[in-house]
């Protein structure tokens, strides 16, 4: 759902590793190695063991750009939230007056968060699907920030993008399933809510139901069908837990964009990279700074931008698009990035025009057929 780009806070969720029913795309040997790397990093950071090598020659965006251009940076992980999609016209949750929660009065909810509560949804699905129609994927274009991540992939340095967003704009920009961990789920697929059924439906099927103002019901068992986004009261995807164990110990640059880093367990990922791994925050304000108590509990690794001990964390305070453009400029990629955005937006506009023309022709043909139908004979 494009509007609620980043799902509501999940501070109350506990990180419980699910049963290993679904394997990651990497081999079992890689998984075991990744888990060992993670344990070493965890003990090292929690107990203060090991050395903290300074990788960046300068704690600035220039320093990050020189590191990327050095060729030593081959496994970049991006962590992103609602801030990367606001320039596409998608509201965040809590901005006064413009945020999603400030504009839900028309749905007569008992409280704003109810629209994403799984128990409320099962009893009253109408508000959610009305909102989904208003903010459905396909009505917005990816931003400069989305295409910057696509460039990282094309240049062979993106290991994975971990996103809190459910707007599917990463996919529209050209990232594929293997490139993405959609931590809070996605509209890309949907499933029947019945545990005995769980039939899967695709994006086009769900779109047709929503825009026909039909509450989606399972063809097999007539239960509700819900997009695969994570509501309050639901577990995060299994792949989130299996992939992070392998990805983060191998990360050699963590880029965090457009997120408050307050939602757990997503926010704790910043502490899963090695002690030497540089971390770049591109955001409108500094977030994710160290909390000593969380560090003692193993959720440490909070960022340090300003103290005398700072050695790897860089904060670039700007919009995500401006920050990505500035970094692309320092990397020598700016013209390429701007050309990519222009080309892809033109392609999307052309595709949208073709779809609308096709729909108009279909509607006209249907109207013409109806008007040409013979009048029914009156009964004698």
Helix percent band:
25-40%
Strand-and-helix sequence, N→C?
HHEHHHEHEEEHEHEEHEHH
Q: Report the CATH C-level class of the largest domain.
A: Alpha Beta
Number of domains: 2
Question: Order of strands across the biggest sheet?
Answer: 3-2-1-7-8-9
Oligomerization = single chain
Mean pLDDT: 82
Low-confidence stretches: 8-27, 45-50, 295-299
CATH topology of the largest domain: Rossmann fold
Total E-strand runs:
9
Number of helices: 11
Structural class designation:
alpha/beta
CATH superfamily of the largest domain: TPP-binding domain
Q: Which architecture of the largest domain does the CATH hierarchy give at level 2?
A: 3-Layer(aba) Sandwich
The shape is globular
The value of Rg in angstroms is 23 Å
Amount of beta strand: 5-15%
Distance linking N and C termini: 55 Å
Keywords:
380 residues; alpha/beta; Rossmann fold; 6-stranded parallel β-sheet; 11 helices; 36% helix; metal-binding; NAD-dependent protein depalmitoylase activity; NAD-dependent protein demyristoylase activity
